[in-house]
Amino acid sequence: PKPQNAITVAVSSRALFDLVEERRIYEEQGVEKYVEYQQNNENVTLKPGPAFYFVKALEHVNARLLELYPDDEERFDIVLMTNNHAQVGVRLINSINHYGLTIERFCMTGGESPIGYLTAYLTNLYLSADSEKVQEAIEAGIASATMFTANKEVAYSDTQLRVAFDGDAVIFSDESEQIVKEHGLDRFFEHEQLNENKPLAQGPLKGFLEDLGKLQKKFYAKNERLNCPIRTYLVTARSAASSGARVLKTLRSWGLEIDEALFLAGAPKGPILVKIRPHIFFDDQMFHIEGAQKLGTIAAHVPYGVAQKYRKS
To answer: What amino acid positions are annotated as catalytic residues?
Structure first.
């Protein structure tokens, strides 16, 4: 599809594939040995990385869209966005072809930051294993997250893309989270009830949730609601009775549906995510990411909002 019609998801090579050993060679022996190693092993298929099953699920959605809308270009376009050198490209191409992935756009920047290219590619979502690059992309206004591999292997759905989002500082702005951090929970509950009818400002992943919703409606239009290959989840630490109404009314004011909303009232997210088995779970707080990882969920950290300041301090 032409970039202006597509939902462009840019994925780094270390997010798409397991390059832990190759990264170690790069760090310990330098770029020349790294490139040499990659060229010597270009016929050795790389193992899947944390974004691999998410990309596979995006491609399944594309296949379903093409069945229903053969001439429509509004679908996912996966771009491999990496600061690898072009000489490493053959191994990446061989591995992509081995798994039957459709990734036609490559951007290989030879050690330079790829962030400037994200805007040129009209990127809707950027996934990387490099937290500094992700931070740079977030600051440039691009929806981005750092990928973390799950500590256990689980089976993911082959027929339905499942995407789980935290609420505050992910779909929504961090305005409410600031009140929790600075004034405590009682003041937060009071603030949310007073402002129940005032929509929250948007957060960095609101646009991607919107993109998913747009594609879902294309399936609904063909009477495929019950067989839709996209399912979205809100998994929030908020309490439903005390602070849930504002979240649901905000989504309604944006014209967005979310398939399942889980208000956990501070309970751990990991056990709920095990039940959902999302291809990706976005959260702004590392302790939720780590809890999800331990139980086998592939998690993506969104470095946005007040929680980052508290984490650093």
So the answer is: 166
Cβ neighbours, 10 Å, residue 241: 10
Q: 131-148 as b/e, with b when 16 or more CB fall inside 10 Å?
A: eebbbbbbeeebbbbbbb
pLDDT (tens digit per residue) in 28-55: 999 999 999 999 999 999 999 999 999 9
pLDDT per residue over 71-120, tens digit each? 999 999 999 999 888 989 999 999 999 999 999 999 999 888 888 899 99
The CATH number that applies at residue 273 is 3.40.50.1000
Containing H/E element for 182?
Answer: helix 175-183
Q: What is the number of domains present in the chain? A: 2
- Same domain, yes or no, for 284 and 210? yes
Task: Compute how many other C-beta atoms are within 10 angstroms of the C-beta atom of residue 62.
Answer: 20
171: closest CA among 287, 281, 290, 32?
281
Q: Are residues 45 and 138 in the same domain?
A: yes
CATH of the domain at 24: 3.40.50
- Which residue, chain included where needed, has tokens 């086998």? 296
**Tokens in use for 20?**
């832990």
Residue 251's nearest CA partner among 206, 286, 293 is 206
Q: Per the domain annotation, does 98 fall within a domain?
A: yes
